[in-house]
From TrEMBL:
InterPro entries: CYPRO4_DUF7135, Vid27, VID27_C, WD40/YVTN_repeat-like_dom_sf. GO terms for cellular component: cytoplasm; nucleus. Residues 68-236 form the DUF7135 domain. The lineage of its organism: Eukaryota, Viridiplantae, Streptophyta, Embryophyta, Tracheophyta. SUPFAM superfamilies: Putative isomerase YbhE. Residues 35-79 are annotated as: Disordered. This is Vacuolar import/degradation Vid27 C-terminal domain-containing protein. Coiled coil: none annotated. Residues 297-612 form the Vacuolar import/degradation Vid27 C-terminal domain.
């Protein structure tokens, strides 16, 4: 058998494919990668295919023999065949098996590929090893070569499972590998100082590898051997579906899909063929650190030296307005602001005021107070202190009381979070009277509600629903749901998957939670049916054991690698609605130079092609990507009111340190 052409694709089906449905739009230095939401048999990135050289099912022995070395004619072959038949010889039936499985006598045999060329037009997959082997070893050295231990041996001290392939790959088994499976191709892709792919020679080989990989991943993540008893210990008996997704109750996801289609807010059809189009791009005055989007006339770019006011339009934000300089002499109370960039900006009182919280010291996340900015005058009007029972305390995050609270013109309260504290602050005194800021000497915020936990919660981030319920993410990966009535005890506590939750968001109706970790997003359905048959969310009651398994949203190994050095997921969020009956339509997250956008309805679709042949928790890789020439600091959807008639979604705003861009999502036939 002759060698196949080098440009033959090794895509999702293992067959050569066409790319007619894949469009790539290049706008300046912004590249919009389209088609990820509609995966064909193969993928193209930046207008090119992901090509595998020598990617076929031929054995190394077969590929070394070519027609040039052994020229044959049809007549000579026919002659030989007729003579063999005349001899009536009998042959063992091992040839076919050897062709199909060249590693039949080679333990853990695989074919190894490497992606080269990075994010350039010359990028491609090449064969690294035509026949090699892999092994899982337990060792205390990941990069060393001297202290390997056999996979069956008992190790002393701190050790972990490592995947070794040939002499070229040696990586700790972890979520950072971004391993992605392709069952139909008997192939896995992963990141380990580069992007690699392994192809197995039989279904059984593929199955054995994945089973062992999952066992090693569990042990490395949680410190326990992978067995049913330890999975119950880690996840809890009510969350057996998280450890074994095949046993999970996925009916809640199906019900939620039906609810979406019946919703008054879903009159605009959810179209599969949606394109991102850049509408505006403007340079910023200073290094942008975050976005504070408004639902009314203005939005705000929070930078290292001040705040830039911009105008809201139906196709995005642009047009520079006033600039609030933190170093201005007018800011008599801005002492700490000039030394530390605010890490949190919170709009209040119909977006006429903004609360700015800065860390105590550079590199520290906690703050002892915050500044209140009057947007209309452009002045910092006071500096507040966090205090409880006469003692100064710290906060690591603040949030609005509810999804639409920033639109309330009389709002005076907001939520606060620290490692072991969850509370509500009031800018009025204990009698409900607005404090005289002109005469007060660093006024103290009033702790009106909350709880100070003794230890162990390690809260990291939080968000509120439309009715004021609260979701909190923790360093251990747990996600807790608190009702509007109590901050003392969570109604529901979802177990962690082993990675810290760095950011969390929730839909307006509280039915969906979106948690951010460094390497994946976790989407949780909070719906359950109580003993009376009523549908509730985990904010309002205890869910029991009828809990759906979560779904994970990930970048492919190649995209994760190409996103850049700072390729950790950050600030994943739903699109923004503040009305009952409206439904969020998209999810967006930042990873390095990428902003990745998922279609929410597609993610919830149980029959979506991404989920086929997947084992374990279902992961969705169908997203659109906006690639910028610099690391992205923030990506957010504007308020739902800015969605226009020809678009199913409000504009998406993406900020790098020096530029801000607005993208519309249009539906094209």
């Amino acid at each position: 058998m002759g060698r196949k052409k080098e440009n033959e694709s090794f895509g999702d089906s293992g067959k050569e494919s066409k790319f007619d449905d894949f469009r790539v739009c290049e706008i300046g230095k912004v590249i919009i990668l389209d088609g990820l939401g509609h995966r064909g048999p193969t993928r193209r990135r930046n207008g090119r295919r992901e090509n595998y050289q020598d990617v076929s099912n031929e054995t190394p022995e077969k590929s070394s023999s070519t027609g040039r070395n052994r020229p044959k004619t049809p007549s000579s072959l026919d002659e030989v065949e007729s003579k063999l038949k005349a001899l009536k010889l009998k042959y063992p039936s091992t040839t076919t098996r050897t062709q199909q499985s060249p590693n039949c006598n080679f333990k853990n045999g695989v074919k190894l590929y490497l992606h080269i060329g990075g994010n350039t037009p010359k990028a491609k997959w090449v064969t690294s090893e035509k026949l090699t082997s892999y092994s899982f070893i337990k060792t205390s050295k990941i990069n060393g070569q001297d202290e390997e231990e056999d996979s069956e041996s008992e190790s002393e001290g701190v050790s972990c499972w490592v995947l070794k392939v040939s002499a070229k790959v040696r990586a700790k088994v972890s979520v950072e590998m971004q391993l992605k499976t392709f069952k139909e191709q008997r192939r896995v892709d992963f990141v380990a100082d580069g992007v690699w792919a392994m192809k197995f020679f039989s279904d059984e080989d593929y199955k054995v590898f994945n089973s062992k990989y999952q066992d090693c991943l569990f042990e490395n993540t949680f410190g326990y051997e992978s067995n049913e008893a330890n999975k119950v210990k880690v996840y809890g008996k009510d969350f057996v579906g998280w450890a074994n997704p095949g046993k999970a109750d996925d009916s809640m996801w199906e019900d939620a899909e039906d609810d979406f289609l019946k919703s008054p807010g879903s009159v605009t059809p959810v179209r599969g063929n949606q394109d991102l189009q850049e509408e505006f791009e403007e340079a910023a005055n200073g290094g942008i650190q975050s976005l504070a989007l408004g639902a009314l006339d203005n939005s705000f770019l929070v930078g290292s030296s001040g705040i830039q006011v911009v105008k809201n339009f139906s196709h995005g934000i642009h047009g520079k307005g006033a600039y609030v300089n933190f170093g201005s002499e007018n800011h008599r109370n801005a002492s700490n602001l000039v030394h530390s960039t605010p890490k949190k900006a919170l709009l209040m009182r119909a977006e006429t005021n903004m609360l700015l919280m800065s860390p105590m010291n550079e590199g520290k996340l906690h703050s002892t107070g915050l500044h209140q900015l009057d947007i209309e005058t452009g002045k910092i009007i006071t500096q507040w202190r966090f205090e409880k029972d006469g003692t100064d305390i710290t906060m690591r995050d603040i949030a609005n009381d509810s999804k639409g609270a920033q639109l309330d013109p009389s709002g005076s309260t907001f939520l606060g979070l620290d490692d072991n504290r969850l509370c509500r602050w009031d800018m009025r005194d204990r009698h409900g009277i607005v404090q005289n800021l002109a005469t007060a000497n660093t006024p103290v915020l009033n702790w009106t509600q909350g709880h100070q936990f003794s230890r162990g919660t390690n809260f990291q981030c939080f968000a509120s629903t439309g009715d004021g319920s609260i979701v909190v993410g923790s360093h251990d990966g747990k996600i807790r749901l608190y009702s509007i009535n109590s901050m003392r005890q969570a109604k529901t506590a979802f177990p962690g998957l082993g990675s810290p939750i760095t950011h969390v968001d929730v839909t307006f109706d509280g039915k969906w939670i979106l948690g951010t970790t460094d390497t994946y997003l976790i989407l949780i359905c909070t719906l359950f049916t109580d003993k009376d048959g009523k549908m509730k969310t985990g904010f309002n009651g205890r869910m029991g054991n009828r809990i759906a398994a979560p779904r994970l949203l990930k970048l492919t190994p190649l995209d994760s690698h190409l996103a850049g050095v700072n390729n950790k997921f950050q600030k994943a969020q739903f699109s923004w609605v503040t009305e009952n009956g409206k439904q969020e339509r998209h999810l967006v997250a930042t990873a390095g130079k990428f902003s990745a956008i998922w279609n929410f309805q597609q993610v919830k679709n149980g029959s979506h092609e991404c989920y086929r042949n997947q084992e374990g928790l279902k992961s969705c890789y169908c997203y659109k990507v906006v690639l910028k020439d610099d690391s992205i600091v923030d990506s957010r959807f504007m308020h739902d009111k800015f969605a226009v008639s020809d678009s199913p979604e409000a504009p998406l705003v993406i900020a790098t340190p020096m530029k801000v861009s607005s993208f519309s999502i249009s539906s094209r036939r």
